[in-house]
Amino acid sequence: MRKVLAEPQLRRAELAFLLSCAADSAFTVTLSVVAFLDGGAAAVGLVGVIRMLPAAVGTPFFTALADRYRRERVLVAGSVVRGVAIVYAAAILEAGGPVPAIYALAVPATIASTVFRPAHSALLPSLCRTASQLTSANVVRGLLESLATLSGPAMVGVLLSGNDATVAFAATAGLSLGAAAALLGLGYEAPPRPAPSEGPRLARDTAAGVRAVAGNLDLRLLFGLGFAQTFVRGALNVFVVIVALELLHTGESGAAALFAAVGAGGLLGSFGVALLAGSRRLGWWLAIALVLWGAPIAAVAAVPTVPVVLALLAVVGLGNAIIDVPLFTLPVRLAPDAVLARAFGVFESLVALGVALGSAVTPLLITLVGLRGALVATGLVLPVLAAVALRRLRSLDGRLQVRDAEIQLLRTTPMFALLPVPTIEHLASSLRRHRLPAGTVVFRQGDVADTFYFVDQGEAEVIGDAEVVATIAHGDFFGEIALLHDVPRTATVRARTDLSVLEIERHEFLDAVSGYRGSSDAASAVVARHLANFSPGRVRL
Predict the structure, then answer these.
(1) Is the pLDDT of residue 125 over 80?
(2) Are residues 436 and 522 in the same domain?
(3) What is the mean pLDDT of residues 455-464?
(4) DSSP state of 245
């Protein structure tokens, strides 16, 4: 909390997320109740499909805009679209208009909602400087989502008990517009974007995001597990209403109470989840969260009493509080910032598809095996998948721990110290280790420059005009002068002992350093100092 509250821009981004999530959960509950009263369980499932399938198709295209333009502007636009759509839904309901028209307005509202999360997930890393700060931001975001999952349905429950759904829709619209207001004027240094003259090409940009996910085995694993979790979430949206009305006989406000129990459990659990901020085993915690998400749903069938069901759904909320931390932190460490919003857009599309399938399949499953059988079958899906994926998740944890050490080395360099998380992660992933025996020449004075170097182990000599001018060792770097000034190498570097260096290709180095003002200024200062002191025995390059 301290890491987030200390940064004004992070505070505003997190507030916007809280309001957006509260609007989303409030809208889901209100719409589900309206649908159930209109056509029963089948209508609830149908509305889930109507909402989510267009969102699943449209989200990757619209999130491409968040990689083309400033991400907070995309978030503001989406929040306004959702708020206006819900206002119109409230007006139709108040006027006694056709309920299918409300279902139709749920489509743009849901698309705007599903675009919000990936664009926000791509925005947060640009507001953070370390992976630990990003993890903290995602932990706080999970806490706020749990608070929203509690407060949104709780608000709807109160409003439904004394009014019709029109007032609940109006309050939901206000939350969405509040999220837009929180993001207006957000100040930060945005990552470099393509020149405006190129114009957005949604099909091409969307395909690039899909390729980024499809070509990365780790992203496919994470997003696949996320898809399975959201399938169960879609089923739970149906289960909660039917369990409340037909199994527990608690009425409409009882359905809101069951939804709120998920939020309450997540809210309480989020304080413990804060311990994940320093964890290097997020893959392991993802597996635990999957078990906590699924097993309690299966257990509802065994003891269908109000206190027990509320407690079990609170455990689901705890699993939800945990699961978002790895699912929205690990992809930032695996996908380049240039396609990050689109990668999250692919994930959000899978989320929407999963919710739609879960909503559509559950009424059929209840018809086939009964409510209790459907609860057991659905609840066991995630624990089984967690057991199957555990080995690969632990392997991912191990590989990222190695990268953490490389990032720590990069951060010691003034040029890289201020880079946002996605850029430094991408640099670390592009590092190549090269071992050279003593006496080997790394490059010669006058050579064409194509690489930047860190010394990891051993020592090297810097030779200018046939004279040794410096000795460099672990933690030192060299090669930046020629790259930044686009000139031949200004000196020869030769291994004095057996040498291990980490290399960064020219374009990776220049993209990182020149893309951010702080890094560019630091690089210019380093080069100026080196050139001013370039004489025998006085400088370490």
Answers:
(1) yes
(2) yes
(3) 88
(4) I
